[in-house]
Amino acid sequence: MTKFGVRSLMNRREFVTKTAAACSLICCGGGVSLSSLLRAGQEGSTSAEKHKFLKDAGMSYNDIFQMAIGRLYLPTIKAVAAEIGMDKLQKVLMEDIKKRVADQVKNLPSRDLPAFAQFFKNPNPFTANSLTMEIIQDSDKVFEMRFSECLWAKTFKEADAADIGFKLICSGDYVTAEAFNAKMKLIRDKTLMQGYDCCNHKYVVTG
Question: Which of 71, 75, 118, 127 is 20 to 30 A from 155 in CA distance terms?
Answer without folding.
Answer: 118
